[in-house]
Amino acid sequence: MSRSLKKGPYINQKLLKKLGKLKIGDKTAVKTWDRACTITPEMVGFILAVHNGRTHISILITEEMVGHRLGEFSPTRKFIKHGGKKQKEAEQKAQEAEKKKVETAKVKITK
Which CATH number does 13-73 carry? Predict the structure, then answer.
């Protein structure tokens, strides 16, 4: 459920103050636990370390991220591939196909 248009986006004012003290392009990461904070144009160019429940994940804020939430760029769950016999067979076929592509490329280069 989204936030009311009347209220506007949620922006952490303390976080903006911390970023205001830094220079754009500074390598220091500002730690934050506020995953619900919306990314604003003033944050572009800074590095934020967003907490995912276990560790802080460093994120370089770019123009494409404006309007999104900080939590979207700090995943909380680690995906481990789906397993099984069919999955292994599919991976082996993909590896064999890739090897054939490499071999054909080598043959073309040598000719």
Answer: 3.30.860.10
